[in-house]
Design brief:
The protein is an all-alpha fold and 68 residues long. The protein has one domain. The protein is built from 2 helices and no strands. α1 runs antiparallel to α2. The longest helix has 36 residues.
Length: 68
Amino acid sequence: METRTKEKETYTTALKRLQEIVNELEEETIDVDELTKKLAEAQRLLAFCKKKLVKTEEEVQKILETMQ
């Protein structure tokens, strides 16, 4: 798994990294020894993106409710 510094991960950076992993999988450029690590990283990134989308949707709903 890629080692991250304490910099804040964003939805955009997580999605970009997921796309990189998918490309590696599609092109079959991932070494068998790295496959498990890449899949674990992808799973973490997917969970992060899902959580971020849910949180954003909730925030948008709150804003819309205050506008009514």
